[in-house]
Design a protein that fits this description.
By secondary structure, the chain is an alpha+beta fold. The protein contains five helices and seven strands; from the N terminus they run E-H-H-H-E-E-E-H-E-H-E-E.
């Protein structure tokens, strides 16, 4: 059973270990372009600034075998009606086994039922067809007018904005 808990400093080692390949990192990270390679100490220092924040939550997904993923949620509006999130599975061997769906369902539940938001948004690259399929399968829809182009590693990558409103669930 997958569960969520607040991010702990010791979780950074799992995230950093997974993110070895820059192109793979960029593929899964449409929102932020951190320095590469990722450094666990810098990650923890960055999150420390948000420790008592009521608008930014780094979370860790885990099961009986340990850490399986990392989820970040943050409010994007002053009224706290919209939350944006992004997540990664930290171990490639877990991909395609339902962990992504499990984490998505937990994040959606957390957003709508605990944080009481009206809408959840995320950004994903067009090249990441498996992530787009996963997001659509749980109810996210593409927002056609929201598309951004980034030049990453000498290639143009289009980011697609997706959203889910509470009544879409």
């Amino acid at each position: 059973m997958i569960r969520l808990r607040p991010y702990k400093a010791c979780d950074a080692q799992y995230i950093v270990k997974w993110i070895k390949n820059e192109q793979e990192f960029r593929l899964w990270s449409a929102d932020r372009y951190d320095e590469f390679p990722i450094d666990a100490d810098k990650m923890n220092k960055h999150y420390e600034a948000y420790k008592d924040s009521d608008s930014f939550w780094p979370m860790t997904a885990f099961d009986e075998n340990g850490v399986i993923g990392h989820l970040i949620m943050r409010f994007t509006d002053g009224k706290k009606n919209i939350i944006r999130f992004g997540f990664i599975i930290v171990d490639d061997s877990l991909r395609g086994k339902g962990y992504g769906y499990g984490m998505l369902h937990l994040a959606i539940k957390y957003g709508f039922e605990i944080l009481r938001v009206n809408k959840i948004t995320l950004g994903v690259f067009e090249q990441n067809r498996s992530a787009i399929k996963c997001y659509k399968s749980v109810g996210f829809k593409e927002v056609a007018h929201e598309k951004k182009c980034y030049n990453i590693l000498g290639e143009n990558w289009n980011s697609i904005e997706m959203e889910m409103q509470e009544m879409q669930r």
